[in-house]
Amino acid sequence: KLHGNIAIDGPAGAGKSTAARLLAQKLGYLYIDSGAMYRALTWKALHQGIDLADERQLVALAEATTIRLENTAAGTVKVYCDNEEITAAIRQETVSHHVSTVARVPGVRRRLVELQRQMAASNRVVMDGRDIGTNVLPEAPYKFFLTASLEERARRRYQELIASGRPVDLETIKEEIRRRDAQDSQREVDPLQPAPDAVIIDTTNMKVEEVVAKLLELIQAHH
Ligand code: C5P
After folding, report:
1. Which pLDDT belongs to residue 2?
2. Does the keyword Kinase apply (predicted)?
3. Which of 15, 165, 175, 193 has the greatest number of beta carbons closer than 10 A?
């Protein structure tokens, strides 16, 4: 039998969320998409016309905002901000473009990390993000860091967007991913990096089912 939370970190488009969601489903754990929380707050800040350079306003906003993630029976996640469902809205390009700017603010992180730890305290979770193994759940017995080449990550994101009917350009996506990863890796507080005890998996040449099988295998072997 398994016990303990599972932390999955990595750069944008490495396939973390799909793998984490499927893994959680298989194990009967709660899936927590921590990136969706930073996106929800970014969506609200943009919606309210808040100046994203104003850290104090962003922290005040974070403290006054209720963000809820709901795992549905179908295995998807619904995202609510102050009880308004914004699941689709947080995937907009403007949100993706600005989310790293909001996520670098220490007071914003403090608030969202507190919520993430609360969720993990009362449930067995698979949580994905950038600082889960290093900061949010440093005691998690299972830590993974998923990577893939920039080309492959851009290609995956491109295909997702095309499949959802949005006209996009592969080079533009590649640049956006490169920029966001640089911002996430270079910020001062809890930057994107593997925990010292994380297992690093390069998913460049793997299908998502293979990634999930690999994670399950490592979890079972480890315990
Ligand atoms: O996972 P996703 O790509 O949706 O995350 C969006 C952004 O939220 C990241 O680029 C990063 O700036 C921020 N984030 C973070 N820490 C996390 C999860 C996400 O800073 N644990």
Report:
1. 54
2. yes
3. 15
Dihedral sign of CA atoms 9, 182, 105, 64 in order: negative
Helix (H) or strand (E) holding 143: strand 142-147
Looking at residue 3, its pLDDT comes to 66
Q: Are 32 and 143 in contact (CB under 8 A)?
A: no
120 marked ligand binding residue: no
- What pLDDT was estimated at residue 1? 45
Q: Look at residue 170 in the predicted model and tell me its pLDDT.
A: 95
* Residue 17 assigned ligand-binding role: yes
Residue of the CA atom closest to atom 14 of ligand 1: 35
Strand partners, 32: 127
* Residue 18 is assigned to a ligand binding site: yes
Pocket of ligand 1 (CB under 6 A): 12, 34-35, 38-39, 99-100, 103, 129-132, 180, 184
pLDDT digits (tens, 9 = 90+) for 151-185: 999 999 999 889 988 888 999 999 999 999 999 99
Tokens of 136: 């949010």
Run of H or E including 63: helix 55-63
Q: What are phi and psi of 61, to 5 degrees?
A: -65, -45
